[in-house]
Amino acid sequence: MSALATKALNYGCPVNRSHPLMRGIVSRLIVLPLYSSGYRMIDIAAKNHGTFVSSPTWGRPRLLGGYGAVTTNGSSSYVDLGAPTSLELYSLMSSFAWVRSTVASGGSAQICVAKDSNVGSRGYWYGIGNSGNAAFYLEINGGSSTINAGPILANDYAWHRIGFTYDGTTWIGYVDGAQVGTVAAGAPTANSGASWWLGGRQYSGFFNGFTGDIDDVCWWNRCLTARDVLDDWNDGRSGSHRTLNYLKTYSVISQAVVAAGGPFPWYLDEMSGGFSTMGLGSI
Predict the structure, then answer these.
(1) Domains of the chain
(2) Is the peptide bond before 263 cis (omega within 30 degrees of 0)?
(3) How many whole angstroms separate alpha carbon 76 and alpha carbon 31?
(4) I want to staple 14 with a disulfide (CB 3.0 to 4.6 A). Which of 44, 128, 148, 259 is the partner?
(5) DSSP assignment string, 26-85
């Protein structure tokens, strides 16, 4: 066994669950570029793996030494996460994603993260609104609430961390660690039949796709504090070295192994269902 492989084996779970920010995390998605059946978004906190639909591509890394991002075309491509029970969150919750827009708004919303379907109950989404700034849309029991605020994000070719928190009564929208708006509203209506999509939504005739890159999409089963949100943004800007155990290891492995197609020890183990027994081999 090579020294490089041995070093990778020592890292265990990719998520640093001892860090306060990772308390209550139920899903954390990054792009896995070399998977045996094609590109995937892999959930390194659970098993809510995403499947690429209509050929989204593997975009440029957000940070040097990173893993890349998923690039959606705004018209048809998206990532389907299905409807895992761990993401059926209807009380305390938070969700954030790194996004980079590469096209002007054009007067239509561009949806980055959504659980919103015309089958059964409506849901909610966040992304870029009609005017090009951050948007957070909720439709609950037939009524809608929207936060449409913050800086213009459309077509600025810069990475931004956008998302929301919910404490059971108030939804708060954030951009790059700063609060941009609030709305008092109840919890979304349960709809386990609707799937989570990245880069668009599961609503017939109103796909509202996102054109650009999406990376490091996270959900928590708690309401992050304002300090947590700022800390999350700063951690992502600096390479997530505090909340991820494997970043340094993977950047080393990527230089030596990616071109050869593997092996990726922690990927193999993660896909097999645990991190206790690490195996070698290409997936």
Answers:
(1) 17-244 (2.60.120.200)
(2) yes
(3) 19
(4) 44
(5) EEEEEEES--TTS-EEEESSSS--EEEES--EEE--SSTT---EEEEESSS-EEEEE--G
Q: Which two tokens stand for residue 266?
A: 């922690």
C-alpha–C-alpha distance, residues 58 and 71, integer Å: 6
Q: Are strands 40-43 and 170-175 parallel, antiparallel or unpaired?
A: unpaired
Are the CB atoms for 265 and 278 separated by under 8 Å? Answer: yes
From CA 184, how far away is CA 186, in angstroms rounded? 7
Of all residues in the chain, what percent are helix, strand and coil, respectively (each to 5)?
A: 15, 35, 45
For residue 248, is pLDDT > 50? no
The pLDDT tens digits for 61-98 are 777 555 678 999 999 999 999 988 889 888 899 999 99
What CA–CA distance (Å, rounded) separates 136 from 275?
A: 35
Nearest to 88 by CA among 141, 36, 124, 112: 124
Q: Where are the alpha helices (DSSP H) in the chain?
A: 3-9, 226-237, 247-257, 265-272
pTM over 0.70? The answer is: yes
Q: Which token pair is 96?
A: 């954030």
For residue 235, which phi and psi values (nearest 5 degrees)? -65, -40
